[in-house]
Amino acid sequence: MKTRKILSKNPSSFIDVNNICSHTTSNKMEVNEDAIFDLQLQSCFFLGVFDGVGSSETGEFVTQISIDAITRELKLYEFRPLKYAITQSLREANRLILLRKTKASYSEIGASFTGVLVRDREICLANIGNCRAYLLRDNVIQQLTTDHTYIQELKSHGISPSQEDLVERKHVLTRMLGAVPNVNISVFPLWIWDSKDCDVEGNDVIILCSDGLYEYINIQDVADKISNCAGNYKSVCEELTQEAIANGSKDNISIVTIPLIGQLRNVLPPGYNVSIDDSKEDSFDDDNYDSGIEEYQIDNNIYVLHLIILVILFNFISIMFFLVGLI
User: Fold this and answer.
1) Cα–Cα distance measured from residue 57 to residue 165, given in angstroms and rounded to the nearest whole number
2) What phi, psi does 85 have (nearest 5°)?
């Protein structure tokens, strides 16, 4: 069991860094396949919850692969637009899980994920699988992410799951890291508004958690306890974890609270300019993005063209010397 504060210094004046808190426990399982990961860089920081899929031996292994890949990729892309950086990082994690899966002949391994990449007032929320992100405002809690599960797919198509589905297919994922090469990751750009921008009263809290918590606790109870914790997020995270265990949770449990100084919205604040120009990424397509392969092929074509021109020039010069010799 581990509870801690996350960041050592303030990377954003719109995040209440001193009160960001995380808590994770293996609960009744031998190994904690959940993982809470934070990474602080020069221009941004990352917070995420992972839930490994597989046996007790592979679940923890997969989350570590994801964390290592994301660390490397975010250090490489931290000055790119947030959507690009977080998507690239998760796709690299997906690639490495698939690679290890093939080499070790694992049949069912993968990871669910939800997390945020933050730069100043920009927040990019990403998720895949069944870890969740919630937004708490004025004791009203709203789920920000959509589960990638068989049950949610039925509900999205207007089909009520049968009792058999709810029992036998409750944890069947339709998407996860490590399932398919062309993984589709849900990514949402968001921004923090404060009282300088508009009539904002009160501050929001982002909550990240795994299914070991939200499946065994009333979500309004989460809202009530966090709203009334008077900033003691460490204590309330532990309390919510214990409540989920008391209600029958035998799974790993993870929760992260991220208090904002302002409110989260899906449009830019008035007069705010994005700190890094993302005009080159306007055509970025989450479903069809090919990780720069096309750009690499274009570069190779240029090299081939240059080589052809050099060969032609060499042949032309050789012919000219030959003709001069005849004269």
Assistant:
1) 27
2) -65, -45
Phi, psi of 206 (to 5 degrees): -95, 135
CA 191 to chain centre: 16
Give which of 28, 295, 26 is closest to 36, Cα–Cα: 26
Quick one: tokens of 160? 């009520």
Q: What share of the chain is helix, strand, coil (3-state, %, to 5)?
A: 35, 25, 40
The yes-or-no verdict on residue 303 having pLDDT over 50 is no
Structure tokens at 223: 């809202």
211 close to 131: Cβ distance less than 8 angstroms: yes
What pLDDT does residue 115 have? 97
For the segment 177-190, the average pLDDT, to the nearest whole number, is 93
CA-wise closest residue to 176 among 53, 55, 288, 54: 53
- Can you tell me which residue has the tokens 């919510």? 240
In one-letter notation, the amino acid at residue 284 is F
